[in-house]
Amino acid sequence: MAFFTQKVWVEWIEQGLANGEYNYHDYKDLSDIEQVGSSKVYKALMKKDDIEIMVCMKYIGNKLSTREVQSELKLLRKLQFFNNEYISEFYGITKSEINDRNQLKYMVMIEYGDGGSLREYLQNNSENLHWSVSLKFARQLSKAIAFLHENNLIHKNLVSG
Q1: What DSSP line would sit under 6-71, residue for residue?
Q2: Which end of the chain is more exposed for a tag (fewer CB within 10 A), N or C?
Q3: CA–CA separation, 149 and 95 (whole Å)
Q4: Boundaries of each Protein kinase domain copy (predicted)?
Q5: pLDDT value of position 132
Q6: Residue 154: which residues within 8 A CB-CB, separation 6 or more?
């Protein structure tokens, strides 16, 4: 298997942006949300059609091969066209600020759920959580997973956050 460098997938992303395969959006007010596995998740305001939308953002490819980056972005792009109420919407890609190693990084922009992530909601409301709300979450999650399976979409990192 060939070794792919960050330079290769950055070129691939830039080509996809230039060809209109991915939407590009600017953002402001970036702040940390949480650490999920080896990825840090952020929230920010994205400007889309003169409206500011709260989005969840995650760096692309911190330790991934080009194939993994391509696979992840292709999945997100497919989801963009399905418009399913149980799946977070993929808005596009943005460039982050240049970091201390003078590297420009890309981030994916995904719909930020009302009240934050499921993990945040459960942590903040576990004492007062009525069983009917838990049942509602279980139904929504099962519908989302069923949708992925029906459309032959695989998500390798399905987590509550």
Answers
A1: HHHHHHHHHHHHHTTSS-B--EEEEEEEEEETTEEEEEEEEEETTEEEEEEEEES-SS--HHHHHH
A2: N
A3: 32
A4: 27-161
A5: 92
A6: 75, 148
In the 8-state DSSP scheme, what is residue 24?
B
Rounded Cα gap, residues 153 and 78, in angstroms: 9
Cβ atoms of 90 and 79 within 8 Å: the answer is yes
pTM of the model: 0.70
pLDDT, averaged per 10 consecutive residues of the chain (161 residues), comes to 61 84 82 70 79 78 64 77 80 72 71 75 84 89 88 66 49
Residue 31: per-residue pLDDT: 79
- Extents of the domains making up the chain: 6-113
